[in-house]
Amino acid sequence: MNRTARVAALRPRYQDDLARGTARFFRPRRTDCPWCGSARLAVRLRTPDLLQHKPGHFVLERCRDCRHTFQNPQLTDEGLEFYYRDFYDGLGEENLATLFGTHERAYRLRAGAVTPHADPGSWLDVGTGHGHFCAAARALLPRTVFDGLDLGAGVASAQERGWIRRGYRGGFVALAGELAGRYDVVSMFHYLEHSADPGRELAAAHRALRPGGHLLIEVPDPRCAFGRLLGRWWLPWLQPQHLHLIPAANLRRRLTDLGFTVITEEHAEPHDPVDLLTAGWLAVNRLAPRRDEPWHPAPPGRARRMLRGAVLAAGIPVLTAGWLLDRLLAPLAHRVGLSNAYRLLVRREDG
């Protein structure tokens, strides 16, 4: 079935969802910070969905005391299902699989963050997606057995391909009891910001690790200057998917409270030099007429399709300039506050 037919087949379900309104997709707005409990909140960002262009508007607020940034009001489970649908799986699977498949060097660098400190026999990758990290890391760690955990169907594909020994499909918090004490390493790469309750996810990681085991976390850095300079066009805001963006100091303190010792903190190496390129793409794609998607009431006509092609073509110089500037700035990113991600390696000390 080609994409046009797949979109047509999915449209009735989406239109039924939208006919019932989007209010049920949101929880009541919080009046306090979910990280520290402070009532001193300020709006940091208001934005529509700039990636899929599904209906809805989203707000990120920041705590004036601890600087934690969070989606408020936060999506309900039903809302998360609606906005994730056809992003990583379904219609979006092919594009995302191609994108993730181009990050092999980054995957090996992530695995290499552990090797000076441990020679793990077992490794659980939480939020593994389709298992691309595990497939790449096996070349660096041939004796390590990799398992993966994810809510999506990609984890089953990863197991079928042999990229992981076993795939767990479900929520990490719910499965933590089953996984208790099994792993030498647990990794969370750009996972924690998607979770509704990061504190419970960290506690689940502590439970899944053996004493002396390591937890490796990589997340977007909400203190990156690009977040202020680019506003809604900064990709790591990623609304509506990113529910919590945690400053490094907050995450260090929470991990220490759970019984972890911080081994390394990196800001330069995790930086992915794509901020200006992706900002340009989001802006150009926002200006262009929408492509055919099942959450739109009807497919676009020929004139709108042609106009979309023309706008995207006109945006090529903008994207090229963004790509070049990203690479020129990359060597200086950490020094001038432009690193868009950070990585923490911590060790579970208690028995």
In brief, what are we looking at here?
This protein is an alpha/beta fold.
Give a quick set of tags describing it.
single chain; 351 residues; alpha/beta; Rossmann fold; seven-stranded mixed sheet; four-stranded antiparallel sheet; 11 strands; globular; transferase
Can you characterise this structure?
This protein has 351 residues and is α/β, with parallel strands linked by helices. The protein has a single domain, classed as Vaccinia Virus protein VP39 (Rossmann fold). It contains 13 helices and 11 strands. Strands 6-5-4-7-8-11-10 form a 7-stranded mixed beta sheet, with helices on both faces. Strand 4, helix 5 (132-140) and strand 5 form a beta-alpha-beta unit. The chain starts with a helix and ends with a strand. This is Methyltransferase type 12.
Count the beta strands: 11
Sketch the topology as an H/E string, one letter per element.
Answer: HEEEHHHEHEHEHEHEHEHEHHHE
* Count of the domains: 1
Distance N terminus to C terminus? 54 Å
Which regions are unreliable across 5 or more consecutive residues at pLDDT < 50?
Answer: none
Q: State the CATH topology.
A: Rossmann fold
The CATH superfamily bears the name: Vaccinia Virus protein VP39
CATH class: Alpha Beta
Q: Which strand order spans the largest sheet, edge to edge or round the barrel?
A: 6-5-4-7-8-11-10
Strand content: 15-25%
Report the CATH architecture. 3-Layer(aba) Sandwich
From the helix content, strand content and strand pairing, which structural class follows?
Answer: alpha/beta
Residue-averaged pLDDT: 95
Main sheet? 7 strands, mixed
Number of helices: 13
Keywords: Methyltransferase, Transferase
Organism: Streptomyces kronopolitis
Pfam family, one: Methyltransf_23
GO molecular function: methyltransferase activity
